[in-house]
Design goal:
379 residues, alpha+beta, tRNA-splicing ligase RtcB, eight-stranded mixed sheet, six-stranded mixed sheet, 18 strands, GTP-binding, RNA ligase (ATP) activity, RtcB, RNA ligase (GTP) activity, RtcB2
Length: 379
């Protein structure tokens, strides 16, 4: 599928080892035919979503489509270096110390964790502030497995420490914003400069800020439970809209489950039973609309996972990975839906981007403890 293109200005980053389901390609082709759409690009983790594909970027002219961003505006990855020693690693003990972090934080708890007021944000009780969320969201302690380029690591990086990767977004806020928009305008694009466009962009910006703060609060409460300090090395959204210039043309760049390639170092995680990669995008990623994959990408639909796996694995057996890492997930449906087998190999995704000349490998990380939920029901 390498160098896949068609007259609707579609490009898919893939090589001979990349598996992409036909339905995902069909969704990408449908999106490419939207009015005002200039170019679309699929990443190697491309998979079918609810009407629109995930793992893709969309570049449009003078109009943009909030539905392409979806309901989790600002979803992204924050990468923290903890004060925990990798040499003293005891995953079960760390899981016990962490306990349950599913309950939303109160305003007082937020301020205690951050040592500053968060009252400028439009918090409400239904936003579940400081929580990870359901689906593919997670927080994961990792240890350094391989360093490829010491010279490209962040200045403060210490390979003897455990690292913390937090994948979450704007929680209920993004859902509320999209729902209001769809009720008012359906799936139509909005003309730039219009009142409707300005309203959406203002709400979108609040959701981005909230998502970043939410990841910060998740990391802070986890570090607090482990009685250690941490430093945020990077925080990058992968569901968002921005004005951009591609090949000399200015337009609107939508990313849905897609990592920006113009923000410096980024983390691209695999499933909870696979490696994660720290990579540096190359200077020219215009072929992929300045975008990279955001993870391994789903191989199976959620509804089929339990049927495919339950005769081979118990829920308990899926709470430990081939790496010996521990998975905290008390939701029996979610443990099957998020099984490593339901995802593509992260190495195949990374290889496709490397072969396309989009990335330099910096380091590879191995999971130690992955937190999904301590509750019994997912979202």
């Amino acid at each position: 599928m390498g160098n896949y293109q068609n007259p609707h200005h579609i490009h898919i980053i893939a090589d001979s080892e990349t598996w992409i389901e036909g339905n995902a390609v069909a969704q990408l082709e449908t999106t490419a035919k939207l009015p005002h759409m200039l170019r679309v690009a699929g990443m190697p983790d491309l998979h079918a979503g609810r009407g629109y594909p995930v793992g893709a970027a969309f570049f449009s002219d003078r109009h943009f489509y909030p539905a392409l961003i979806g309901n989790d505006i600002g979803c992204g990855m924050a990468f923290w270096q903890t004060g925990l020693s990798a040499a003293k690693l005891k995953p079960a003990k760390l899981a016990k110390q962490l306990g349950n972090i599913d309950t939303p934080l109160s305003q007082d708890e937020q301020e205690a964790l951050l040592e500053e007021s968060a009252s400028d944000y439009p918090f409400s009780d239904d936003l579940a502030v400081g929580t990870i969320g359901g689906g593919n969201h997670f927080a994961e302690l990792q240890t350094v497995e391989t360093v490829y380029r010491n010279d490209l690591l962040p200045a403060a990086f210490d390979s003897n420490r455990l690292q913390l990767l937090v994948h979450s977004g704007s929680r209920g806020l993004g859902q509320q914003i999209l729902q209001r928009h769809i009720e008012a305008y359906g799936h139509r694009g909005l003309a730039e400069g219009s009142e409707a466009a300005a309203d959406y962009l203002a709400e979108h910006q609040v959701a981005l800020e909230f998502a970043r703060l939410n990841r910060r609060l998740i990391a802070a409460r986890m570090l607090d439970r482990w009685r250690t300090e941490g430093e945020c090395l990077l925080d990058v959204h992968h569901n968002f809209l921005e004005q951009a210039e591609i090949a000399g043309q200015t337009g609107w760049l939508h990313r849905k489950g897609a990592t920006p390639a113009d923000k410096g170092l980024v983390m691209i995680p695999g499933s909870r039973g696979d490696y994660s990669y720290l990579v540096l995008p190359t200077q020219d990623c215009q072929i992929s609309l300045n975008t990279l994959a955001h993870g391994a990408g789903r191989k199976w639909q959620r509804g089929e996972c339990k049927g495919r796996l339950s005769h081979k694995y118990s829920a308990d057996s899926l709470r430990q990975t081939a790496f010996g890492s521990v998975v905290v997930c008390q939701d029996k449906a979610l443990i099957f839906e998020e099984a490593p087998q339901a995802y593509k190999s992260i190495d195949s995704v990374i290889s496709a981007m490397k072969n396309a000349g989009l990335i330099e490998l910096v380091a590879r990380f191995k999971p130690v403890l992955t937190y999904k939920t301590s509750g019994g029901c997912g979202e």
